[in-house]
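Good morning C.,

I know you're traveling, so I'll keep this short. The sequence:
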Amino acid sequence: MRWLPTFFLMGAVAFLILPILIVIPMSFSVGSYLAFPPTDWGTQNFQALWVRPEWRDALLYSLKVAALVTALALPIGTAAAFGLEYASERWRSVLRMFVLLPLVVPLILLGFALYVVYAQLGWLNWTPGLVLSHLSLAIPYVTLAVGVGVQALDRERFLAARLCGADQARAFRDAILPQLYPSLMAGGLFAFVASFDEAVIALFIASGENSTITRQMFTSLRDRIDPTVSAVSTLLLMITLSLVLASALRDRKTNRS
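The tokens, ready to paste straight into the viewer:
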């Protein structure tokens, strides 16, 4: 009966993964509606993703916002990870709770609160406002990922660099950052996906020219089931898998070296 836990584990994985994988062949179906299995195959849904301006603009806008969020979340989350590591035992748990609070609060409540505040400030449909809202979700992921690397740091390298005459900035760059590369890569991956895949907050504070790709998907499903949604879903899946595989391969290469 040793195979029983493995059997249940594989069944659970199949239950979670197979419905997602079904979207891939559906995205290549030809017609004005979704069909599985497809009767005819083609790439018209992917062509529509780039030809139709509402989809193309939403995709490019989501990529821009996700890139900005990642660039800002990495230094802020890294600083938070170091701050939590060197904080006193008395305050560490409290500070960690505040850093991770956005992951605990339901997104519907966070989105409504941001809508009320942004409406008063005039920040609705404003790119910096959307970036700030996504930062609240991305920073905790970066803090968690980098925090693992901070705990495993070999601090003797930093001291050795200082003894060799390097100042603090150069010692941190040459002795600490190389050790944190895998954690930084993972944190950047989580930050990018958290922003690019976020939909609930975007429904509250982004619309019109500043619509994200996920908001555009919800809008198209509300009006009618647009087959382009399946192509977008496949694209999101491929981007996420590519980033995860790239991070895993880099971690494997780093561990070997």
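Safe travels,
E.
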